[in-house]
Amino acid sequence: MKPRILSFVAAVIAAAACMSTQAQSFGDIPESQRERLMPQLEAMAGSNPVSSSSEGDAAAEQQSASRRTSGIYGPVLPEQQQLAIKPFGSELFSGGFRGLRSDGLNPDYRILPGDQITLRLWGAIEMDRVLPVDAQGNIFIPAIGPVQVEGVSHSQLDSIVKSAVRNVYPDNVSVYTNLQGVQPVSVFVTGYVNKPGRYVGVPSDSVLYLLDQASGIDEQLGSYRNIKLSRDGEVIANLDLYDFLTNGKLAHPQLQEGDTLLVERRGPAVSVVGDIAKPYLFELDDESLTGAGLNQLAPLLPGVSHALVRGKRGIMPIAEYLPLKDFGNTRLADGDEVIYLADQRSSNLVIQLEGAYLGRSYYVVPKGTTLHELLNEIEVNPGETAWESVSIRRESVKEQQQQALDDSLRRLETTYLGASSSTAEESAIRIREAELITQFVEKARQVEPNGRLVIANEGNLVDVRLQDGDVVTLPQRTDAILVSGEVYIPQSMVYVPGKSVADYIDAAGGFSQHADDEHILVARQNGEVRDAGEVGLRAGDQILVLPKVETKNLQIASTVTQILYQIAVATKVALDL
Protein backbone atom coordinates (compact mmCIF):
# COMPACT_ATOMS: atom_id res chain seq x y z
CA MET A 1 0.00 0.00 0.00
CA LYS A 2 1.35 3.40 -0.99
CA PRO A 3 2.27 5.43 2.13
CA ARG A 4 0.08 8.38 2.79
CA ILE A 5 1.72 11.72 1.87
CA LEU A 6 0.66 14.68 3.92
CA SER A 7 1.74 18.26 4.30
CA PHE A 8 4.52 18.70 6.79
CA VAL A 9 2.74 21.48 8.60
CA ALA A 10 -0.06 19.17 9.67
CA ALA A 11 2.38 17.27 11.84
CA VAL A 12 4.10 20.43 12.98
CA ILE A 13 0.89 22.20 14.00
CA ALA A 14 -0.20 19.15 15.93
CA ALA A 15 3.06 19.21 17.87
CA ALA A 16 3.50 22.99 18.23
CA ALA A 17 0.11 24.62 18.04
CA CYS A 18 0.83 27.09 20.79
CA MET A 19 4.51 27.80 20.06
CA SER A 20 5.39 31.11 18.37
CA THR A 21 8.77 32.53 19.32
CA GLN A 22 10.75 35.15 17.46
CA ALA A 23 14.42 34.56 16.68
CA GLN A 24 17.17 37.08 16.33
CA SER A 25 18.40 37.76 12.79
CA PHE A 26 22.12 37.47 12.16
CA GLY A 27 22.17 39.80 9.13
CA ASP A 28 21.72 39.42 5.40
CA ILE A 29 25.18 39.99 3.91
CA PRO A 30 26.30 36.73 2.25
CA GLU A 31 29.48 35.18 3.61
CA SER A 32 31.03 35.06 0.11
CA GLN A 33 30.66 38.83 -0.23
CA ARG A 34 32.01 39.42 3.29
CA GLU A 35 35.09 37.29 2.58
CA ARG A 36 35.78 39.19 -0.65
CA LEU A 37 35.34 42.65 0.85
CA MET A 38 36.76 42.29 4.35
CA PRO A 39 40.45 42.73 3.43
CA GLN A 40 39.49 46.04 1.80
CA LEU A 41 36.60 47.20 3.99
CA GLU A 42 38.45 46.48 7.25
CA ALA A 43 40.87 49.19 6.24
CA MET A 44 38.56 51.62 4.44
CA ALA A 45 35.06 51.38 5.88
CA GLY A 46 35.14 49.04 8.88
CA SER A 47 34.48 49.80 12.50
CA ASN A 48 36.83 49.24 15.43
CA PRO A 49 36.74 45.65 16.73
CA VAL A 50 35.09 44.95 20.05
CA SER A 51 37.61 44.79 22.88
CA SER A 52 38.13 41.60 24.83
CA SER A 53 39.42 41.12 28.31
CA SER A 54 41.80 38.27 27.51
CA GLU A 55 45.41 38.74 26.51
CA GLY A 56 44.89 36.55 23.40
CA ASP A 57 41.94 38.64 22.21
CA ALA A 58 43.89 41.83 22.84
CA ALA A 59 46.74 40.52 20.71
CA ALA A 60 44.35 39.64 17.88
CA GLU A 61 42.77 43.08 18.14
CA GLN A 62 46.18 44.74 17.99
CA GLN A 63 47.13 42.69 14.94
CA SER A 64 43.88 43.65 13.18
CA ALA A 65 44.30 47.31 14.10
CA SER A 66 47.82 47.33 12.68
CA ARG A 67 46.31 46.92 9.24
CA ARG A 68 44.36 50.18 9.55
CA THR A 69 44.97 53.83 10.20
CA SER A 70 42.27 55.71 12.08
CA GLY A 71 41.11 59.14 10.99
CA ILE A 72 38.33 61.62 11.63
CA TYR A 73 36.09 59.83 9.16
CA GLY A 74 37.08 56.33 10.18
CA PRO A 75 39.83 53.99 9.00
CA VAL A 76 41.53 54.85 5.71
CA LEU A 77 43.71 52.82 3.41
CA PRO A 78 47.24 52.69 4.90
CA GLU A 79 50.23 53.56 2.74
CA GLN A 80 51.35 49.94 2.38
CA GLN A 81 47.97 48.90 0.97
CA GLN A 82 47.86 51.95 -1.28
CA LEU A 83 51.18 50.91 -2.82
CA ALA A 84 49.81 47.39 -3.37
CA ILE A 85 47.06 48.73 -5.66
CA LYS A 86 48.52 48.77 -9.17
CA PRO A 87 47.74 51.45 -11.76
CA PHE A 88 45.27 50.47 -14.44
CA GLY A 89 47.43 49.35 -17.38
CA SER A 90 50.41 48.21 -15.30
CA GLU A 91 50.20 44.72 -16.87
CA LEU A 92 50.59 46.22 -20.33
CA PHE A 93 54.37 45.83 -20.47
CA SER A 94 54.46 42.24 -19.27
CA GLY A 95 53.27 40.99 -22.67
CA GLY A 96 56.57 41.29 -24.54
CA PHE A 97 55.99 44.09 -27.04
CA ARG A 98 59.74 44.33 -27.55
CA GLY A 99 59.71 40.82 -29.02
CA LEU A 100 57.09 41.70 -31.65
CA ARG A 101 59.04 44.22 -33.72
CA SER A 102 57.59 45.24 -37.10
CA ASP A 103 59.63 44.85 -40.30
CA GLY A 104 58.25 48.16 -41.61
CA LEU A 105 56.90 46.67 -44.83
CA ASN A 106 53.19 47.14 -44.27
CA PRO A 107 51.11 48.75 -47.07
CA ASP A 108 50.71 52.03 -45.16
CA TYR A 109 54.42 52.52 -44.56
CA ARG A 110 55.63 55.93 -45.80
CA ILE A 111 58.97 55.87 -47.63
CA LEU A 112 61.81 57.80 -46.02
CA PRO A 113 65.37 58.77 -47.07
CA GLY A 114 67.72 55.84 -46.66
CA ASP A 115 65.17 53.18 -47.68
CA GLN A 116 66.17 50.65 -50.36
CA ILE A 117 63.94 50.05 -53.43
CA THR A 118 64.39 47.20 -55.92
CA LEU A 119 63.60 48.24 -59.54
CA ARG A 120 63.30 45.82 -62.48
CA LEU A 121 62.57 46.91 -66.08
CA TRP A 122 62.26 44.60 -69.08
CA GLY A 123 61.11 44.94 -72.67
CA ALA A 124 62.40 47.97 -74.61
CA ILE A 125 64.95 48.51 -71.82
CA GLU A 126 66.52 46.05 -69.35
CA MET A 127 67.40 47.06 -65.76
CA ASP A 128 67.73 45.31 -62.38
CA ARG A 129 68.99 47.59 -59.60
CA VAL A 130 68.60 48.41 -55.90
CA LEU A 131 68.11 52.18 -55.64
CA PRO A 132 68.55 54.12 -52.37
CA VAL A 133 66.23 56.98 -51.45
CA ASP A 134 68.52 60.00 -51.23
CA ALA A 135 68.41 62.85 -48.73
CA GLN A 136 66.03 64.80 -50.99
CA GLY A 137 63.55 61.91 -51.03
CA ASN A 138 64.31 60.82 -54.63
CA ILE A 139 65.47 57.66 -56.35
CA PHE A 140 67.57 58.19 -59.49
CA ILE A 141 66.69 55.93 -62.45
CA PRO A 142 69.32 55.96 -65.27
CA ALA A 143 67.97 57.36 -68.57
CA ILE A 144 64.85 58.56 -66.74
CA GLY A 145 66.07 60.83 -63.94
CA PRO A 146 65.04 61.52 -60.31
CA VAL A 147 61.64 60.32 -59.07
CA GLN A 148 60.20 61.78 -55.83
CA VAL A 149 59.11 58.92 -53.51
CA GLU A 150 59.51 60.35 -50.00
CA GLY A 151 56.19 60.22 -48.16
CA VAL A 152 54.72 57.81 -50.73
CA SER A 153 53.04 54.78 -49.14
CA HIS A 154 54.39 51.32 -49.85
CA SER A 155 51.16 50.42 -51.66
CA GLN A 156 51.47 53.46 -54.01
CA LEU A 157 55.17 53.04 -54.87
CA ASP A 158 54.69 50.80 -57.91
CA SER A 159 52.22 53.16 -59.64
CA ILE A 160 54.44 56.24 -59.02
CA VAL A 161 57.52 54.58 -60.58
CA LYS A 162 55.53 53.16 -63.52
CA SER A 163 54.19 56.61 -64.31
CA ALA A 164 57.72 58.09 -64.34
CA VAL A 165 59.12 55.29 -66.59
CA ARG A 166 56.28 55.54 -69.10
CA ASN A 167 56.82 59.25 -69.49
CA VAL A 168 60.10 58.25 -71.23
CA TYR A 169 59.26 54.74 -72.51
CA PRO A 170 55.52 54.79 -73.23
CA ASP A 171 55.43 51.37 -74.93
CA ASN A 172 56.78 47.87 -74.47
CA VAL A 173 58.29 48.38 -70.98
CA SER A 174 57.23 46.40 -67.92
CA VAL A 175 57.98 47.74 -64.44
CA TYR A 176 58.34 45.95 -61.10
CA THR A 177 59.20 47.65 -57.77
CA ASN A 178 59.67 46.36 -54.27
CA LEU A 179 60.59 48.01 -50.98
CA GLN A 180 63.58 45.89 -50.02
CA GLY A 181 64.35 47.33 -46.60
CA VAL A 182 63.73 50.35 -44.42
CA GLN A 183 66.11 52.67 -42.67
CA PRO A 184 66.24 52.12 -38.87
CA VAL A 185 65.42 55.11 -36.71
CA SER A 186 66.50 55.94 -33.18
CA VAL A 187 63.97 57.48 -30.78
CA PHE A 188 64.61 59.06 -27.39
CA VAL A 189 62.31 57.63 -24.69
CA THR A 190 62.29 59.76 -21.57
CA GLY A 191 60.16 61.09 -18.74
CA TYR A 192 58.64 58.76 -16.16
CA VAL A 193 59.78 55.44 -17.60
CA ASN A 194 61.85 52.85 -15.77
CA LYS A 195 64.87 53.03 -18.11
CA PRO A 196 65.04 56.27 -20.12
CA GLY A 197 67.32 56.10 -23.14
CA ARG A 198 67.81 56.09 -26.91
CA TYR A 199 66.19 53.07 -28.55
CA VAL A 200 66.29 51.82 -32.13
CA GLY A 201 63.28 50.74 -34.13
CA VAL A 202 61.77 51.13 -37.57
CA PRO A 203 59.52 54.01 -38.60
CA SER A 204 56.34 51.94 -38.45
CA ASP A 205 57.01 50.61 -34.94
CA SER A 206 54.37 51.17 -32.26
CA VAL A 207 55.24 53.40 -29.33
CA LEU A 208 54.45 50.35 -27.16
CA TYR A 209 57.53 48.67 -28.63
CA LEU A 210 59.71 51.59 -27.59
CA LEU A 211 58.11 51.94 -24.13
CA ASP A 212 58.61 48.24 -23.54
CA GLN A 213 62.30 48.59 -24.46
CA ALA A 214 62.45 51.26 -21.73
CA SER A 215 61.05 48.62 -19.29
CA GLY A 216 57.64 50.27 -19.20
CA ILE A 217 56.13 53.22 -17.37
CA ASP A 218 57.04 54.01 -13.76
CA GLU A 219 54.03 52.66 -11.80
CA GLN A 220 54.36 55.21 -9.01
CA LEU A 221 54.91 58.38 -11.01
CA GLY A 222 54.31 57.85 -14.73
CA SER A 223 51.18 58.68 -16.70
CA TYR A 224 49.40 56.17 -18.90
CA ARG A 225 47.21 58.93 -20.35
CA ASN A 226 49.61 61.75 -21.15
CA ILE A 227 52.39 60.63 -23.50
CA LYS A 228 53.81 63.08 -26.04
CA LEU A 229 55.60 62.31 -29.34
CA SER A 230 57.78 65.27 -30.35
CA ARG A 231 59.69 66.05 -33.54
CA ASP A 232 62.13 68.96 -33.87
CA GLY A 233 60.85 70.42 -30.61
CA GLU A 234 57.18 70.34 -31.64
CA VAL A 235 54.57 67.94 -30.22
CA ILE A 236 53.09 66.00 -33.14
CA ALA A 237 50.95 63.52 -31.17
CA ASN A 238 49.36 63.18 -27.72
CA LEU A 239 48.84 59.52 -26.82
CA ASP A 240 46.44 58.01 -24.26
CA LEU A 241 47.07 54.34 -23.49
CA TYR A 242 43.61 54.06 -21.90
CA ASP A 243 42.21 54.25 -25.44
CA PHE A 244 44.33 51.23 -26.32
CA LEU A 245 43.46 49.37 -23.09
CA THR A 246 39.72 49.89 -23.39
CA ASN A 247 39.12 50.25 -27.15
CA GLY A 248 42.25 48.88 -28.82
CA LYS A 249 43.03 52.23 -30.49
CA LEU A 250 46.55 53.65 -30.61
CA ALA A 251 47.15 55.74 -33.73
CA HIS A 252 50.29 57.86 -34.08
CA PRO A 253 52.45 59.27 -36.88
CA GLN A 254 55.23 57.23 -38.42
CA LEU A 255 58.42 57.55 -36.42
CA GLN A 256 61.47 59.42 -37.70
CA GLU A 257 65.09 59.64 -36.67
CA GLY A 258 65.52 61.80 -33.56
CA ASP A 259 61.88 61.73 -32.40
CA THR A 260 61.29 62.02 -28.66
CA LEU A 261 58.72 60.00 -26.70
CA LEU A 262 57.97 61.70 -23.37
CA VAL A 263 55.94 60.08 -20.55
CA GLU A 264 54.53 62.87 -18.40
CA ARG A 265 53.98 62.76 -14.65
CA ARG A 266 50.79 61.00 -13.62
CA GLY A 267 47.75 63.23 -13.30
CA PRO A 268 44.88 63.02 -10.76
CA ALA A 269 44.38 59.40 -9.68
CA VAL A 270 41.65 57.60 -7.74
CA SER A 271 42.06 54.23 -5.98
CA VAL A 272 39.13 51.87 -6.48
CA VAL A 273 38.31 48.74 -4.44
CA GLY A 274 35.20 46.84 -3.33
CA ASP A 275 32.84 44.94 -5.61
CA ILE A 276 35.02 45.17 -8.70
CA ALA A 277 36.86 42.47 -10.62
CA LYS A 278 40.25 43.83 -9.51
CA PRO A 279 41.38 46.85 -7.46
CA TYR A 280 43.07 49.52 -9.55
CA LEU A 281 44.46 53.03 -9.40
CA PHE A 282 42.72 54.95 -12.19
CA GLU A 283 44.19 58.10 -13.70
CA LEU A 284 41.50 60.57 -14.69
CA ASP A 285 41.73 63.55 -17.00
CA ASP A 286 39.69 66.72 -16.54
CA GLU A 287 36.82 65.39 -18.67
CA SER A 288 36.54 62.04 -16.87
CA LEU A 289 37.22 63.24 -13.32
CA THR A 290 33.66 62.36 -12.30
CA GLY A 291 31.86 59.33 -10.99
CA ALA A 292 30.44 58.65 -14.45
CA GLY A 293 33.93 58.65 -15.97
CA LEU A 294 35.16 56.25 -13.31
CA ASN A 295 32.14 53.98 -13.78
CA GLN A 296 33.11 53.52 -17.44
CA LEU A 297 36.63 52.45 -16.53
CA ALA A 298 36.20 50.39 -13.34
CA PRO A 299 35.39 46.66 -13.89
CA LEU A 300 32.23 46.64 -11.73
CA LEU A 301 30.71 43.37 -10.61
CA PRO A 302 27.01 42.75 -11.25
CA GLY A 303 24.70 44.23 -8.64
CA VAL A 304 26.87 47.22 -7.62
CA SER A 305 24.48 49.85 -6.31
CA HIS A 306 26.47 52.35 -4.20
CA ALA A 307 29.83 54.05 -4.00
CA LEU A 308 31.64 55.24 -0.88
CA VAL A 309 33.91 58.22 -1.61
CA ARG A 310 36.58 59.26 0.86
CA GLY A 311 39.22 61.96 0.39
CA LYS A 312 40.13 65.56 1.11
CA ARG A 313 38.93 68.89 -0.20
CA GLY A 314 41.58 71.38 0.80
CA ILE A 315 42.55 70.43 4.33
CA MET A 316 39.15 68.98 5.27
CA PRO A 317 38.45 65.24 4.99
CA ILE A 318 35.20 64.25 3.28
CA ALA A 319 33.19 61.03 3.12
CA GLU A 320 30.08 60.41 1.03
CA TYR A 321 27.98 57.29 0.51
CA LEU A 322 25.99 57.63 -2.70
CA PRO A 323 23.69 55.55 -4.90
CA LEU A 324 25.42 54.76 -8.18
CA LYS A 325 23.19 57.12 -10.19
CA ASP A 326 24.02 60.04 -7.90
CA PHE A 327 27.70 59.10 -7.82
CA GLY A 328 27.83 59.65 -11.59
CA ASN A 329 27.46 63.42 -11.07
CA THR A 330 30.06 63.59 -8.29
CA ARG A 331 33.27 65.47 -8.99
CA LEU A 332 36.31 63.49 -7.85
CA ALA A 333 39.72 64.75 -6.74
CA ASP A 334 43.28 63.46 -6.78
CA GLY A 335 43.85 60.90 -4.01
CA ASP A 336 40.19 59.98 -3.51
CA GLU A 337 39.37 56.44 -2.45
CA VAL A 338 36.24 54.86 -3.92
CA ILE A 339 34.63 51.66 -2.67
CA TYR A 340 31.98 50.16 -4.92
CA LEU A 341 29.39 48.10 -3.04
CA ALA A 342 26.49 45.85 -3.95
CA ASP A 343 24.30 47.25 -1.19
CA GLN A 344 20.88 46.26 -2.45
CA ARG A 345 19.26 43.52 -0.41
CA SER A 346 17.21 40.93 -2.20
CA SER A 347 13.57 40.72 -1.17
CA ASN A 348 13.75 36.92 -1.40
CA LEU A 349 15.56 34.13 0.44
CA VAL A 350 16.97 30.92 -1.03
CA ILE A 351 16.45 27.95 1.28
CA GLN A 352 17.83 24.45 0.73
CA LEU A 353 16.42 21.18 2.02
CA GLU A 354 18.39 18.07 2.98
CA GLY A 355 17.37 14.69 4.36
CA ALA A 356 14.08 12.85 3.82
CA TYR A 357 11.44 14.84 1.90
CA LEU A 358 9.45 14.75 -1.32
CA GLY A 359 9.71 17.21 -4.19
CA ARG A 360 12.27 19.90 -4.90
CA SER A 361 15.38 20.74 -2.90
CA TYR A 362 15.42 24.57 -3.14
CA TYR A 363 12.77 27.13 -2.26
CA VAL A 364 12.77 30.86 -3.00
CA VAL A 365 10.61 32.57 -0.37
CA PRO A 366 9.98 36.22 0.60
CA LYS A 367 11.96 37.81 3.40
CA GLY A 368 10.32 37.36 6.77
CA THR A 369 9.13 33.82 5.97
CA THR A 370 9.17 31.60 9.05
CA LEU A 371 10.07 27.95 9.36
CA HIS A 372 6.44 26.88 9.85
CA GLU A 373 5.41 28.74 6.69
CA LEU A 374 8.11 26.95 4.70
CA LEU A 375 7.29 23.55 6.16
CA ASN A 376 3.70 24.09 5.08
CA GLU A 377 4.93 23.87 1.47
CA ILE A 378 6.97 20.69 1.92
CA GLU A 379 5.53 17.23 1.48
CA VAL A 380 6.94 14.35 3.49
CA ASN A 381 6.25 10.72 4.20
CA PRO A 382 5.69 10.69 7.99
CA GLY A 383 6.87 7.09 8.13
CA GLU A 384 10.27 8.05 6.70
CA THR A 385 10.81 11.60 7.98
CA ALA A 386 11.54 12.35 11.64
CA TRP A 387 9.60 15.60 11.42
CA GLU A 388 9.87 16.24 15.16
CA SER A 389 13.69 16.46 14.79
CA VAL A 390 13.92 19.21 12.17
CA SER A 391 16.95 21.50 12.49
CA ILE A 392 18.62 24.28 10.51
CA ARG A 393 22.24 24.63 9.39
CA ARG A 394 22.99 28.35 9.31
CA GLU A 395 26.20 30.06 8.18
CA SER A 396 26.08 32.72 10.89
CA VAL A 397 25.76 30.04 13.59
CA LYS A 398 28.74 28.21 12.09
CA GLU A 399 30.78 31.41 12.27
CA GLN A 400 29.79 31.93 15.91
CA GLN A 401 30.70 28.35 16.81
CA GLN A 402 34.06 28.69 15.06
CA GLN A 403 34.77 32.00 16.76
CA ALA A 404 33.87 30.62 20.19
CA LEU A 405 36.11 27.60 19.63
CA ASP A 406 39.01 29.77 18.40
CA ASP A 407 38.64 32.05 21.42
CA SER A 408 38.69 29.09 23.81
CA LEU A 409 41.78 27.60 22.17
CA ARG A 410 43.55 30.95 22.19
CA ARG A 411 42.80 31.42 25.91
CA LEU A 412 44.07 27.90 26.59
CA GLU A 413 47.37 28.63 24.83
CA THR A 414 47.77 32.08 26.37
CA THR A 415 47.00 30.93 29.91
CA TYR A 416 49.06 27.75 30.11
CA LEU A 417 51.80 27.79 27.49
CA GLY A 418 53.33 30.98 28.86
CA ALA A 419 53.22 30.02 32.56
CA SER A 420 56.55 30.17 34.43
CA SER A 421 58.06 27.44 36.63
CA SER A 422 59.87 27.86 39.95
CA THR A 423 61.60 24.46 40.17
CA ALA A 424 63.15 21.97 37.74
CA GLU A 425 60.49 19.38 38.62
CA GLU A 426 57.73 21.87 37.97
CA SER A 427 59.42 22.85 34.70
CA ALA A 428 59.39 19.22 33.52
CA ILE A 429 55.69 18.97 34.32
CA ARG A 430 55.05 22.22 32.42
CA ILE A 431 56.85 20.85 29.37
CA ARG A 432 54.70 17.71 29.32
CA GLU A 433 51.55 19.78 29.77
CA ALA A 434 52.65 22.13 26.97
CA GLU A 435 53.10 19.16 24.63
CA LEU A 436 49.62 17.91 25.53
CA ILE A 437 48.05 21.33 24.98
CA THR A 438 49.90 21.91 21.69
CA GLN A 439 48.81 18.56 20.25
CA PHE A 440 45.24 19.08 21.41
CA VAL A 441 45.03 22.62 19.99
CA GLU A 442 46.42 21.44 16.65
CA LYS A 443 43.72 18.76 16.39
CA ALA A 444 40.96 21.04 17.61
CA ARG A 445 41.77 23.72 15.03
CA GLN A 446 41.11 21.21 12.26
CA VAL A 447 37.53 20.74 13.43
CA GLU A 448 34.86 22.46 11.32
CA PRO A 449 31.59 23.31 13.13
CA ASN A 450 28.37 22.36 11.38
CA GLY A 451 26.40 25.54 12.23
CA ARG A 452 23.44 23.52 13.51
CA LEU A 453 20.66 25.66 15.00
CA VAL A 454 18.52 23.65 17.44
CA ILE A 455 14.89 24.67 17.01
CA ALA A 456 13.23 21.87 18.97
CA ASN A 457 12.06 22.56 22.49
CA GLU A 458 10.55 19.67 24.46
CA GLY A 459 9.12 18.09 21.33
CA ASN A 460 7.88 21.35 19.81
CA LEU A 461 9.36 23.28 16.88
CA VAL A 462 10.10 26.95 17.53
CA ASP A 463 8.86 29.06 14.61
CA VAL A 464 12.06 30.98 13.74
CA ARG A 465 12.51 33.45 10.90
CA LEU A 466 14.52 32.00 8.03
CA GLN A 467 17.70 33.55 6.66
CA ASP A 468 19.15 33.45 3.17
CA GLY A 469 21.27 30.33 2.70
CA ASP A 470 19.64 28.32 5.50
CA VAL A 471 19.75 24.55 5.03
CA VAL A 472 16.70 22.90 6.61
CA THR A 473 17.41 19.32 7.68
CA LEU A 474 14.56 16.82 7.74
CA PRO A 475 16.30 13.72 9.11
CA GLN A 476 15.54 10.19 8.00
CA ARG A 477 13.58 8.24 10.60
CA THR A 478 15.80 5.49 11.96
CA ASP A 479 15.72 2.70 14.51
CA ALA A 480 19.46 2.86 15.19
CA ILE A 481 21.57 4.11 18.08
CA LEU A 482 25.16 5.13 17.28
CA VAL A 483 27.83 4.65 19.95
CA SER A 484 31.09 6.52 19.27
CA GLY A 485 34.02 8.11 21.03
CA GLU A 486 36.09 6.32 23.64
CA VAL A 487 34.61 2.82 23.38
CA TYR A 488 36.39 -0.26 22.08
CA ILE A 489 33.99 -1.04 19.22
CA PRO A 490 32.20 2.12 17.96
CA GLN A 491 29.13 0.97 16.06
CA SER A 492 25.45 1.42 15.32
CA MET A 493 22.93 -0.76 17.13
CA VAL A 494 19.18 -1.24 16.95
CA TYR A 495 17.23 0.90 19.38
CA VAL A 496 15.49 -1.20 22.02
CA PRO A 497 13.09 0.62 24.36
CA GLY A 498 14.19 0.35 27.97
CA LYS A 499 17.92 -0.17 27.29
CA SER A 500 20.13 2.37 29.02
CA VAL A 501 23.21 4.25 27.88
CA ALA A 502 25.35 1.87 29.93
CA ASP A 503 23.78 -1.11 28.13
CA TYR A 504 24.72 0.27 24.72
CA ILE A 505 28.26 1.15 25.85
CA ASP A 506 28.71 -2.41 27.18
CA ALA A 507 27.48 -3.74 23.83
CA ALA A 508 30.14 -1.60 22.12
CA GLY A 509 32.90 -3.30 24.10
CA GLY A 510 32.82 -1.00 27.09
CA PHE A 511 34.91 2.07 27.84
CA SER A 512 38.37 2.35 26.32
CA GLN A 513 41.33 3.01 28.60
CA HIS A 514 41.16 6.73 27.68
CA ALA A 515 37.44 7.13 28.32
CA ASP A 516 36.01 9.58 30.83
CA ASP A 517 33.05 7.63 32.17
CA GLU A 518 31.73 10.77 33.88
CA HIS A 519 31.39 12.73 30.64
CA ILE A 520 28.98 10.95 28.31
CA LEU A 521 26.77 12.94 25.94
CA VAL A 522 23.66 12.12 23.94
CA ALA A 523 23.31 13.92 20.58
CA ARG A 524 19.81 14.07 19.16
CA GLN A 525 18.92 14.08 15.45
CA ASN A 526 17.76 17.68 15.82
CA GLY A 527 21.26 18.80 16.82
CA GLU A 528 20.57 19.01 20.56
CA VAL A 529 23.39 17.65 22.77
CA ARG A 530 22.60 16.68 26.39
CA ASP A 531 24.33 14.99 29.28
CA ALA A 532 23.50 11.28 29.21
CA GLY A 533 22.36 11.36 32.83
CA GLU A 534 19.70 13.97 32.09
CA VAL A 535 17.76 12.37 29.21
CA GLY A 536 16.36 9.06 28.14
CA LEU A 537 17.36 7.47 24.86
CA ARG A 538 15.24 7.42 21.73
CA ALA A 539 15.71 6.12 18.22
CA GLY A 540 18.25 8.09 16.17
CA ASP A 541 20.32 9.24 19.16
CA GLN A 542 24.11 9.18 19.20
CA ILE A 543 26.03 8.32 22.37
CA LEU A 544 29.35 10.21 22.63
CA VAL A 545 31.92 9.05 25.19
CA LEU A 546 34.44 11.85 25.72
CA PRO A 547 38.13 11.17 26.40
CA LYS A 548 39.76 11.69 29.77
CA VAL A 549 42.20 14.58 30.02
CA GLU A 550 45.47 13.01 31.20
CA THR A 551 46.86 15.76 33.42
CA LYS A 552 47.06 16.45 37.14
CA ASN A 553 46.48 20.13 36.57
CA LEU A 554 42.80 20.52 37.40
CA GLN A 555 42.55 23.88 35.67
CA ILE A 556 43.89 22.50 32.39
CA ALA A 557 41.65 19.44 32.68
CA SER A 558 38.60 21.62 33.25
CA THR A 559 39.42 23.95 30.32
CA VAL A 560 40.17 21.13 27.87
CA THR A 561 37.01 19.28 28.93
CA GLN A 562 34.99 22.42 28.28
CA ILE A 563 36.48 22.67 24.78
CA LEU A 564 35.72 19.00 24.16
CA TYR A 565 32.10 19.77 25.04
CA GLN A 566 32.12 22.69 22.56
CA ILE A 567 33.44 20.45 19.79
CA ALA A 568 30.91 17.73 20.56
CA VAL A 569 28.04 20.23 20.42
CA ALA A 570 29.30 21.86 17.23
CA THR A 571 30.23 18.69 15.31
CA LYS A 572 28.77 15.61 17.06
CA VAL A 573 32.36 14.35 17.27
CA ALA A 574 34.21 13.21 20.41
CA LEU A 575 37.69 14.52 19.61
CA ASP A 576 40.33 12.12 20.83
CA LEU A 577 43.42 13.26 22.70
Outline the structure in words:
By secondary structure, the protein is an alpha+beta fold. Among the domains are: 90-101 and 184-265, Outer membrane lipoprotein wza domain like (Outer membrane lipoprotein wza fold like), CATH 3.10.560.10; 110-181, wza like domain (wza like fold, 2-Layer Sandwich); 269-341, Outer membrane lipoprotein wza fold like; 402-450 and 478-571, Outer membrane lipoprotein wza domain like (Outer membrane lipoprotein wza fold like), CATH 3.10.560. 29% of the residues are buried. The strands form 8 sheets. A 5-stranded mixed beta sheet has the order 8-7-11-9-10, covered by helices on one side. It has a 5-stranded mixed beta sheet with strand order 13-12-16-14-15. It has 14 helices and 29 strands. The radius of gyration is 39 Å and the shape is elongated. Helix 11 packs antiparallel against helix 14. A hairpin with a 6-residue loop joins strand 17 and strand 18.
